[in-house]
Every structure is written in C-alpha cells, then in structure tokens.
Amino acid sequence: MVESSSAMNVDLSVMKRMVKDFTAGAIGGTACVMAGQPFDTIKVKMQTFPSLFKTAFDCGVKTLKQEGFRGLYAGTIPSLAANIAENSVLFLFYGQCLTLVKKLVGKKDEKELSILNRAFAGSGAAVFSSFALCPTELVKCRLQAQHQMNIMAGKTGAKSGVVQVTMQIIREDGFLGLFRGMTSTLVREVPGYFFFFGGYELSRYFLTPEGKTVDDLGAVRLTFCGGIAGVSLWIAIFPADVIKSRIQILTQGSDKVPGFFETMFQIVRNEGPRALYKGLGPTLVRCFPACGALFVAYEGTQKLLENV
Predict the structure, then answer these.
(1) 68-88 pLDDT tens trace
(2) N or C of the chain: less Cβ packing under 10 Å?
C-alpha cells in the first residue's frame, strides 16, 4: 500500500508538471504572436519574394499600401495556432526532457543542471514541437504570401481564409501535404532550440544580481533574456528557415517538392548566399518584443500555477 501510494504521488506530480508546462507554454505563445506578428509577415515576404522588396522597411510600407494594416497581421489566426501548439508542446516536452537529462547526468535537483544540459533538453523538446508546428506554419506562410502569389498567378478577387487554404492543401496534396517542409522544420528547430534555451539560460545567469537567483529576475531583465534567446535562435537557423519558407510557399500546387539541399543550392546558385539571410533584420528586431513577451508570460504563468 505504501509503494502504491508513493507511485500515485509521483504520477500526480508528473501530471501537474506537464499541465503547468503546457499551459505556460500556450500563454507564452499567445503573447509572442501578439507582440511580433507584423515583423514575421515582413520576414516571410522578404524570404519568399526577395526581388520585390529592397529592405524590411520597404516591405512594410508596400504591404501597408497594398493590403492595409490588416496585411501586416495576415496569418495571425494560424500564427496563434502555430505558436500555441508549438510552445505548449515545446515547454511540455522541455520539462520532460529536463527530467530525463537530470537522470542521465546523475543530478538530484533540476536546479543543479548546467546551461549546456538545459540547451540539450531544448533540442530534444524541439523534435516533438516540430510535428505540431509544421502544418500550422505552412498555412500561416501561405496566407502571408497570398497577395504576391495571386499577382504572380494573375488572380484577382477575395483572398482565401484559414479554412480555405487548409482545405486546398489537403485537396491538392492529401493530408500529408500539411507536413510539406517537415524535414526543413526539423533541421531548423532541433539545433535552433539548443541555442534558444542556451542563450536564455546564459543571459539569465549573467543578469542575475549578486545574492539572488535566476528566479528573482524582473520583467525587464526577462524580456532582455528572451530577446537574446530569440537572436541566438534566428542567427543560428535563419538559412534553414528561408529554405523552409520557399519549399512551403513556392511549391504550392506542384507535384514535385524539391528537397532541403536541392532548394538551398538553387537559392545560392540563382541569388547568391546573401539570399539565405533575406528578412533577418525584421526577424532580429522582432525577437525582443516577441520572445521577451513569450518568456515573461511563461515565467509569470509558472509562478501563478506554482501552488495550484
């Protein structure tokens, strides 16, 4: 009976941890989108149509003129779905990966884990979040690039919404079509989140005042740490993100989907290596409000749920 009671307590503790991590990740993902969506729209357009825009500012101005303010928030609903799905799953499995890493390195308390340990846990969690992210991000990217794709195809009239775009993908490519760009997503996410969580933990370590712990950081310092995490992520993975965007958008309606390396060599050959960094500027600017909001909301939710 004692052993059974002990096992139930452990299971309940694990379940509470999972629910807390999942909820905090979902709220963090929502905050991230609301703070950074216009920058993400500009990034996707510059990645996909580099010849149409000279700079990020030029892209933003043209989007406002041609599509209005709503154009900068195109794809917000799938963005919310993508970020809530990604971050809830990401932080859920990040907590579980931390527990696994703790066992592997022989530590009794999670607080004893090194920055490197936490970075590897982030990479492991990214494998699972990629499966939640890929379909929703595919729809988001198609919506963000819809205006330019319609012009290229000579189409006019009303734009498609989330449901229409999703159904079009399934109709043309089947259910597995929603996972177009999955390899590119994994290539981007797994190493990217090593740098993301590594950058966040390293920033927290350096910004913690003497005599305090990383849990005592205020909203301003957490925002900065989140921004550094985002910058670390995007500098490391941006070429993979450009390739993913091209595969997901420009192969629309095509039976033959080029592979990751084929697309990369094609971009470099036709446009030069710099094309792999098109849209990096607005992405890095977006990191501080978006990733800052993500971690402030995540850490805040964790504290609110601590005694639940």
Answers:
(1) 878 888 778 877 877 888 899
(2) N
Structure tokens at 294: 């993500």
Q: In a 3-state reduction of DSSP, which class is residue 211? A: coil
Whether the Cβ atoms of residue 224 and residue 288 lie closer than 8 Å to each other: yes
Element (DSSP H or E) covering residue 296 = helix 280-304
Q: Distance between CA atoms of 75 and 20, rounded to whole angstroms?
A: 28
- Residues 184 and 260 sit within 8 Å (Cβ to Cβ): yes
Q: Which two tokens stand for residue 5?
A: 């009671």
Report the chain's terminal Cα–Cα distance, integer Å: 26
Q: Write the single-letter amino acid at 10.
A: V
- pLDDT, tens digit, for every residue of 227-239? 999 999 999 999 9
DSSP 157: S
Reported as a pLDDT band with limits 50, 70 and 90, residue 2 is very low
Residue in 127, 113, 124 with CA at minimum distance from that of residue 201: 113
